[in-house]
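To: structure desk
From: M.T.
Subject: fold request, one chain
Message: Could you run this one when you get a chance? Sequence is below, nothing fancy, just the single chain.
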Amino acid sequence: MAEMESQDVAEPMAPGEASKSGARPADREGLLKHSREFLDFFWDIAKPQQETRLEATEKLLEYLRARPQGAEMKYALKRLITGLGVGRETARPCYSLALAQATMRPALFANLFGVLALFQSGRLVKDSEALMKSVKLLQTLAQHHNHLQEQPQKALVDILSEVPEATLQEILPKVLRADLNSVLGSPEHLELFLLARQKVPRKLEELVGPVSLFSDENVPRLVSVLKMAAASVKKERKLPAVALDLLRLALQEGKFPRFWKDVVEQGLLKKQSWPASYLCFRLLGAALPLLSAEQLPLVMRGDLIRHFGEHMVTAKLPNQFKFAPEMNEYVGAFLEGCRADPERQLAVVVAFTSVTNQGLPVLPTFWRAVRFLSPPALKGYVAWLRTMFLQPDLDSLVDFSTSNQKKAQDASLHVPERAVSRLRKWLILRLVSIVDTLHVEKEEDVIEEVARFCFFHSFFEAKKPTSQIPETEQRFSFPLESRTREVVGSAFFSLLQTLSTQCRQAPEQTQDSQPWTYRLVRFADSLLNHSRNVAALTPFTAQQRQAWDRMLQSVRELEATSSGAGAKAAAFQHLLLLVGIYLFKSPTESCDLLGDIQTCIKKSLGEKTRRTRSKATNPQEPPWVEVLVEILLALLAQPSHLMRQVARSVFSHICSHLTPRALQLILDVLNPEKNADEDSVVVTDGSEEQLEGAEDRSSDGEDDRASAGEEDSGEDSDDSEEEDRDADVDQGFREQLMAVLRAGKALGTVDGEDDDDDGDELGDEAMMALDQNLASLFAEQKLRIQARKDEKDKLRKEKVLRRDFQIRVLDLIEVLVTKQPESPLVLELLEPLLDVIRRSMRTSSTKQEQDLLHKTARIFTHHLCRSRHYCHDVGRLVGTLYAQVERLVQQAGRQADAAVSLYYFNAALYLLRVLKGNAAGKPVCKAPKKEKAGSQPKGPEVAQAAGGLDLSLVTPIYSSALTSFLTRRNSPLTVTMFLSLFSRHPVLCKSLLPVVIQHVTGPARPRHQAQACLLLQKALPTRELRVCFDDPEWEQLVSQILAKVTENLRTLGEAQTKSEHQKELSSLGLLNTLFRTIHQEKLTVDLTAVLGVLQSKQQSLQQRECAAGSSRLYDLYWQAMKALGVQRPKSAKKEAKEVPSVTQNPVSTKRKKKGFLPETKKRKKPKSEGPAPEEGARPAAAGEQQPPSTGKKRRHRRKATVPAQAQAKQRPAPDPAAAAITGPGTPAKTPKLKKKRKLSQVNGAAPVSPVEPAGKKQPQKDLPEKGVSGKSPQSALPRKKARLSLASRSPSLLQSGAKRKKAQLRKARKP
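Reply: Done. C-alpha cells follow.
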C-alpha cells in the first residue's frame, strides 16, 4: 500500500528548484509524508561516520530496486548527481557508489560487451557451461529493451549460428518459444526461427510443429516484421539478414513467386515508405545471383523495377538519397560473378535497359557495369541495341510516367513516335559508350560493327538489301527522323575520338596496321560503289566524287611513301582521311579543303631542301604552308577534339616551313581588333544537338519536386522580365506613349489645371481605339526589347566561341615554340602573347577567360622564356630587337598591375638573352697567355660577360626604368625584376650601379632609399659583378657606397614611419654586406666615420629597443659594431630575457637544464694584479664591468686565445676603427670567427677607444708600418684560404675548432 501511494506521488523537485520554477507545495508535502524514510537516506549518506554512510547507501539501493519506475528514482538521481559536488570529501565516494549502482545502463552494456568478447575469443563454442550462462544473461538483458533495444537478441542469433548442431538442439527449447506469434513478433525471433529451420529442422518441428511462413495468414505478419527490420537499419543503409534468409527459404521451398508478389510487391510496396522501398531495392540486388534465367523476368518486369525506375527519375535534388550507385554495385558484382553464364548476364542487362520513362531509359548512357560482360553476352547486348534501334518494340519495355507527366494535358507527350525518338537517341549513345569500356585489341570485331552501324545510319540509307552489306538487311519499323540522324552523326565522330585516344601504338591503328579512319573510308567507298543497294542522304556531285577519288589516290601514295617520309606522311594521311569523312557531313567546305590539302602535301613532300621565305615558284600564288595553315585554322574552328589533335599533329610537321605571313594568320586570331572584322574562319558550335538531346531528356524526366518549384521559378522569371522591361524603356518610347495618350485624350491637362475641370469622359469607341493603339505600341516595344536581348545573347555566344577558338589556336603556338625554339619567328610571338595576357588579366571574370590566360601564361613562361634553346641567328633583326627591348621595358613601367609588368620585363630579359648569345654580335677577345689567372679582371672577361650586347643601347633603357622605379610613387616594377637583370647581365649591372647609388641618399623618398639599399645589398656579393671591376675601381665603389650609407645612418633611430624604419633596416643590412666584402677582399677603407656615427646612436637605439621592441634593428646594429671590433654588452643581451631575482642563481633556469653548473659551484680563476692580456683586444661596455660569462664555449675559446696573446708581448690593443683593412663582417650567427680575427691600424693613428673611460688614455706604442699597405700581418686566413672562403661564403663553418686553434698559434709565433 505504501508502495502504491508512493508511486502515485508526483515527481519531487530538488532543493532550490521550488523557488525558481514555482513548485507545487502539495506534491512536496505528500512526498515528505509518505517517504520520510526515503529522504533520510540522503542525510545519512553525507554523515562523517563511514558505517552510517555505507548502511544508508545499501538501504537506498534496496529501496530503489523495489521502485525502479517511481518518482523516487528520478529524485534520487538528481540528489545523487548533486551530491557528487559537495565539499566534504568523505561524502562523495558514497554518492558515487550509489549513483553507479542506481544507473543500470552501464552495467547492462558491460554485460553485453563481456558476452560479445567471449564470443569473439571462441570460448563459447568450446565451453558449453559458459555458453549456457551467456545465453541466460542475454535473455535477461533482452528484457531491458529501452537501454539495449534488439542488441542482445542479435548477439544471441550470432552466437547460435556458430555453435554445433548438437549444442543448438540442446539450447533451442530454452531460447525459442513454441508460439508462432512470438516468432513473428520481431525480426530477431524470426531470424532465430529461420536459423533453427536451416540447421536443425527436425528439432524445430518437434518444438513448434509444421509451420508454413508463406501462408495467407502469415504473409501480413511477415510484411510487418520486414518493415520493422527496414526501420531498424535505416541509418546503416544495409539489407537486414532476416530479409535475405526469407528469400533463401522461399527459393528453397519453391515459393519464390508467392514471396515476391505477396510479400514484396503487394506488401512492402503497397504503402510506399522509403525505408521499405530501399529494403526492396536491396533485396532485388541481392536476389540477382540466386535467381535462374526463368525467375529473372518475374523480378525484372514487375512493380518493383518500375518503382526503382521512378526513383531514378525523381531523385534529382542534391540532398536527396540516390540508390543508383548501390544498385550499380549489386549489378556489377552479379555480372562479374557469373561470367560463365552469358545468358543470365544478357537477361539482367537487357532488363535494366528496358526500364524507361516514356521511351527514355532511366540508366545513364555510360554504364560501368557493362565492362564485366563476357564476349558472348557483349555481342548479344550490342545486337539487341541495334535491333531496338531499327525496330523498337515498345511493348517489351517496362515503361512508366511520373505523377507530373500523368497530369500533363499535352497529348503529343504520349505518342509512340516521341518515345521511339527518345529511345533511339539513348541507344546510339549507349552503343558508342560501350566502346569506351572495351579493349580495342580484344574486341575489334564489336568495335568495327558499332562504327559501321553508326556511320551507315548517319549518312546513308538502304534501298535494297544485299548480303555484302549487312547494314542493309534490316529496315526501320519507324522512320528515322532528321534530328535523330544528327545525333547519330555526332555520336559517330565521338566514336572516332574514342578510338584515336585508346589506340596508343599508332594513330587509330587496328591489328592489321591500318587506321580506323582508313577502314571506315574503305567502307564508305564500298557504299558509294553500291549505288543500287545504298543511297547517300546527301548525294555527291561530280566534283565532290572526283575529290573523293583523288583523296583515296593520295592516301595510297602516302601509304607507299610512308616508309621514307615517316611520321610526316602518316600525319598527312590522317588529315586526308578525316577530311574525307567530313565530306559526308559538309560536302561543299570539305571538297575545297581536300583539293588544297592535296596540293600542299605534294609541295611539302616534293621539297628536298628547305627553301627560304623569299623564294616562291609563283609570286601570285601563296606558299603552300600558308594555305595549309588556313586549312588547319578552319579545322580548329569546328568543335571536334579529334580535329584539334589532327591539326596539332600536322602542324608539328610543317612548322619548320612556316613563313611570317603564315604565322601572322595564326596571330590574327589572338588579336580581337583584327579577328572581329574577318569572316574567313567561321567558328561553329556543335553543342546545339547535345542541348536539344538534353532538353528532350530533361523536359519530360523532371521529378515531382522539380516541377513543384515551377510556379515559384515562373514568378521569379516574371519579376525579372518586368525589371528588364523597365530597364529597357527609353525616352523615345515614353514620347510615343505620351503621343498616343494625348491623341486619345486620355491624358490629363498639363497646364496645372485640375482633372475635374476637364470635359466629358471618353466614349466606348474612343476607349477601344485607345486600347488598340496602346496594344500595338507595347507590342512593338516588346519586339524591340526581345530583339535587343537576342542581340546580346548572340554577341555573348560569339564571344564564347571566339575565346574557345583562341584557346584551340594556342595549340599551334605551343607546338611552334616547342618544336622550333631557334626559329626567328618565335621572336614575333612575344608581344601578341603579352597582349593576350594583359587583356585576360583585366577581364578574366569567366572560367573560359581564366583558361585562356593560364594557357597563354604557361606557353610564354615555360615554353618560351625558360626554354634552353633560343634563336642564335638574328641577322638583320638586331636593331629591331633593341627597339623591341626598349618598347617592352617602357610598357613594363606603364602597367597598372605588377604581375603584368613582370611578364613584359621577362620578355625583355629573353630578348637580352637572345642578343647576348647572338653569333652576329661583338667578337669576344681572348686573354693573353702571359697574364696570370689570379690578377685583376681584364677586358676579355668583361667582354665575355657582355656577349653580343651593345651596352650603349641597353644601358639608357634600363637606366631610365631604374630611375623611374626609384622615383615614382606607385611603380609596377619591383626589386626582384632588377635583381634578375643584375644576376643575368652583370656588365649591365655595373653600368646601372651609379643610378642606384645616387638614390641611396638625397631627396628620394625613404621607401625608394630602402629599395636602393636592398638592390646594392643583393648585388654586391655576386661574383659575376666583381669580375667586371678592377681592384681600384672596386675599392672606390665600396668607399662611395660606404659614404652614402654613413650619411643615411646619421638619422638612425629617428624613424617615425614604416618606410623610414625599413630604410634603417636596409641601410644596416647594406653596411654589414660592405663589411663582409671589405674583410674577404682585404680592402683598405677608412671606417672611422661610420664607427663614430654608429657609436653616437648606441644610447638612442638601446632606449628605443627597450621601448618599442625593435629587436631586428638592434641586432643588425650590433652585428655592424661587432664587425668593427666592438662587442655587444652582456647586459644588453640579457635585457630581452627575464632577469632573475637577487636571491636566485645568476644562471637562468633554462641553462640549468642543459647541464651548466651554478655560479657557486664553479672554480674561480685567481685575478692577476695587472690587466689581462686579452682585455685590450676585447673591449668592455663603456664605464661598466662585464659579469663573468657562464657559457662553456666562450670559456674554451678564451683559454685558447691566451697563449697567442701572451706571446704578443702585451702589444697595445689596436683601435676598433682599424678594422678598415680586414673588415670583419661575418653575421652574428658565427661568433667563433670573430674571436680569432685581429684588427689593423689605419694611417698609423689609433684614436681613443669608445669603450674606455674618458679620463683613461690608451698607451701609444710602436705601430707596424705594414698597416698602411692594405694587408694585415695578423690576417686570420692565408691568401689561398681567403679565396676558398670567398667561394663558399662561410669560411668559419669549414674549419673545426682544433684547426682554428692551430692557426692562431702559428700566427702568434710569427715575428
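Reply (cont.): The radius of gyration is 48 Å. Let me know if you need anything else for the meeting.
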